[in-house]
Amino acid sequence: MNKKILLSGVKPTGRPHIGNYFGAMKQFVDLLNTGDYECYFFLADYHALNLIQNAEEMRRHSLDLAIDYLAIGLDPKKATIFKQSDVSAHTELAWIFDTLVAVPYLMRAHAFKASRDKGIEEYIKNKYGLLGYSGISNKDLPDSEKPAISRTPLAQKALKEFNEKINSPEYTAESSFNLTLKVLESINVGTFNYPVLMAADILLYDTKVVPVGQDQKQHVEYARDIAQKFNNAFGETFKLPEPLILGSTGIVPGTDGQKMSKSYNNTIPLFATRSEIEKAVMSIVTDSSGEVPTNVYAIHRLFRPESELKPLYEANKGKYKALKEALIDDIDAFIKPLRERRAELAQDEAKVRQILAEGATKANTVASAKLEEVKKKIGVL
Ligand code: ADP
Ligand code: TRP
Hints:
Layout: E1 4-10, H1 18-34, E2 37-43, H2 45-48, H3 55-72, E3 79-83, H4 89-98, H5 103-107, H6 110-128, H7 153-167, H8 173-184, H9 189-192, H10 194-203, E4 209-212, H11 217-234, E5 242-245, H12 274-282, H13 294-300, H14 306-315, H15 320-346, H16 349-378
Parallel strand pairs: 1-2, 2-3, 4-5
Helix pairs in contact: 3-15, 4-10, 4-16, 10-11, 12-15
Bound molecules: adenosine-5'-diphosphate and tryptophan.
The site of tryptophan (TRP) has 14 residues, from strand 1, helix 10 and strand 4.
């Protein structure tokens, strides 16, 4: 009977795209439907507050993400679907964890480092006038997936100069500290604490399995570390979670050939209308050096088995327009039922709110029992 507990969350920050779907959301549904897990899926709205600081947008994005969850097939009868902010034990436990973790440890966390690198990037951009430069936050990507601009000689020169500057002997501790402070000015404490809240999200439910993309693996490891720290200090309380790394599909490329991402404006939205699909597919950058348009093919293989694609591309060598039209039809055939299901669900927002309210009640029962146990262990109860 005792099923393993599985939990994952997504930040409500905007319309999901097919990269999010094939990279992560689809596996949520597949894992739920195995029937092997007791599942919790939530909207990480307090994590999103680091990015979305506008009430209307926050409300809209949260409800939209709840509708998206339901539309892809997360069944509220089988899984607990809820909003993080509805379960105050998350933020309360995060505070308790805050007292156990050291500052430099959090400075090594992925979310913090990504924001810091973005800050450095802003600095380089302002100093050298490199619009669209994003060579630092993309440094873990292979060169071929970096935006073209970060490979330009000017960008390379700027990065080299920057590195030389902060490493040079005349760059004093004081100026280095000032530059660090300048960069840190753009980072809020919520971003710094991001993994602590995420640890609370995970540990409150005795979660065993956390399905996430590669970029979140380190944060799940932080949750393990924090569980161990707490257990060592106050006695056995938390189970140690394990990441389940998604992404057997690999990185889904965007219309420009880089990684598909909301931040690059190169997406095909998951619930796109036919005309949005047409527009996006027609804008796919084709590599004119070969007869097979690589970017078109890389997206097409998500929608049709390669055994069917090979003859299609063979028969249409060099005919980019025909291949793009075939891709439009295939994407549309795939998205249409999802789009229709979503439109239907969107008609009844009251029902979606009701589902979130029921999810919150269930989540609260589990989370508040755990929090009570924690409060006794630390001696505030
Ligand atoms: P975005 O880059 O569009 O802001 P997020 O960072 O919100 O996307 O990612 C949400 C989830 O979707 C993560 O688990 C991430 O690994 C996955 N994901 C995002 N973009 C892609 C992609 N292009 N290919 C595969 N998976 C992706
Ligand atoms: N940090 C995750 C992301 O950006 C979202 C998230 C918040 C999460 N809390 C979580 C994922 C707990 C898994 C478990 O994608």
